Amino acid sequence: MRTKIAESSRKNKELIVWRGKETQRIEAFSDSVFAFALTLLIVSLEVPKSFSQLSDVLSGFFIFGLCFILLFQVWYCQNLFFRRYGLHDIKTIVLNGALLFTVLFYVYPLKFLFSLFAVGTKLSVSILPQEVPTLMLVYGLGFCAIFLLFAYMYAHAAKCADELNLTELEVFETNTHKFIFLTFVVVGIIAIIVAFIVPPQWAGPTGALYSLTGLGVSMVTSRREKIRKKRFPS
After folding, report:
1. How crowded is the C-beta side of 184, counted as CA atoms within 13 Å?
2. What is the domain count for the chain?
C-alpha cells in the first residue's frame, strides 16, 4: 500500500526526491501499531440484536469514522516522511517509537471526545462541565505531542542533509514541513489555553479552534513559497 501511495504522490509537485523506495521493518511495525489503534476504536462494538442496538452501532460507526480520518492523516504523514527520506537510524527509530506510543495513548481520549456527539444513545458518555477543560487538555496534549514529534523528525532529516545528499532546495522544503507541523502545535497550545480561560460550559466549543490549522498552514506555506522563489528562482 505504501508503494502505491508513493507512486501516486510522485505525480504531484514533490520538491523532495523520494529516497525511501523499499518498505523497512520500522514501517511494517508502524503499520501494525496503527492497525491495532484502529482495533481499539471498534473493540467495544457488538453485533446488534435489535433495531435499537443497530441504531447505536450506526452512531458508533460515525464516531469511528471521525477517529479513523484523524488517525489515517497521522499515518499518511508518517508514511510521507519515510518515503521522502528512508531514514532508519537510531534517532528516527526513537522518535517514531514515541510517535506510535502517543498514537496509542491518543486513541481513547479521541474516542471519548467524539462520543460526546452520540447524545441519546448507549454510546454516549457522561462528563461534568468542570471536567471538560481537563478533557480538552488531554486531547490537546496528545495533538501537540504528535505534531511536535513530526516536527522533530523533519528537523532531524534536515540535519542528515549530508548523509542523505539533500540539495539546498530539499533542505529548505524539509524545514518548511517542520514549520508546518509546528503550526499545528501552536494551534493546539492556543486551544488548550482558551479551554481553561473560558467558563467550563464553553470549554467544549473551543475545539473549533483546531480548524485554525488550515489558516496557519496556508500562511506558512504562502510565506515559505515566496522565500523559496526568491532563493531558488529556477
Report:
1. 18
2. 1
CA distance 183 to 213: 7
CA 233 – CA 52 distance, rounded (Å): 63
Backbone angles phi, psi at 166, to 5 degrees: -75, 140
pLDDT beneath 50, residues of the chain: 1-2, 5-6, 8-12
Give Rg (Cα) of the chain.
20
The total number of residues written for the chain in this structure: 234
Residue owning grid cell 447524545: 119
Which H or E element spans position 56? helix 51-85
Query: Which structural domain, as residue segments, surrounds residue 159?
Result: 2-231
Predicted model pTM? 0.85
**CA atoms of 87 and 187, how far apart (whole Å):** 28
- Rounded-to-integer distance, Cα 185 and Cα 142, Å: 10
pLDDT in tens, 194-218: 999 999 888 888 888 999 999 999 9
For the stretch 72-105, pLDDT in tens is 999 999 999 999 999 999 999 999 999 999 999 8
- Residue partners of 41: CB distance under 8 A and separation at least 6: 64, 67, 68, 71, 107, 111
Q: Cell digits for 164?
A: 542523505
Cα 21–22–25 angle (5° rounding)?
140
